[in-house]
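Kindly inspect the following:
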Amino acid sequence: MIRFSNVSKTYDNGTEALKNVDLEIADGEFVFIVGASGAGKSTLIKLLLREEVPSSGAIEVNGYTVNRLKRRQIPGFRRSLGVVFQDFRLIPTMNVYDNVAFALRVTNVSTRDIRRRVPYILSLVGLASKARCKMNELSGGEQQRVALARALVNNPKLIIADEPTGNIDPELSYEIVDLLNEINKVGTTVVMVTHEHDLVAQFNRRVITIDNGSVVADDADWGQR
């Protein structure tokens, strides 16, 4: 469950990034968040990840009141999330297997469990045959699949995808969203931020539109127009 209750965010330079946002996303939903550059999408993601705190209002994610988290609680909270970024954020000196395993090693998961979990996740995203490849041997779409595998390997309740198709071509973009769609079908909540309206229109999912820091539309039938 994600709940924003009257959330506003004003930065120190006076920029009002979000204004009185109220929204609720239920467990198991797939939601697109769309809007032009500067609309407030990036701030919303930063608040979800507790990279920023709201100027006013309250945010609940996965049972946590995010704006009240103590510093020591933040790592545990973030482990309940899987995050996929536009720029992949992979480690170029590591191969595919180790990039995904890294997300488990930093949380002290046993070697036995890593050896069981990582091949399963790589198979899920269609990269079983690429486990020993380095990042420079992969296409952009394959690198994004590695990033998605890394986000999934901790079995998170919620996947946050921040412009995950921004650096890949349209055909691969569809494949990535279709893969997120399949992941959602097994119960994982997916929130995807994008500016690609043509891509969103191919999936009949709820669409929240942000403009000038405010939610201006919340449409479950957007893709059916």
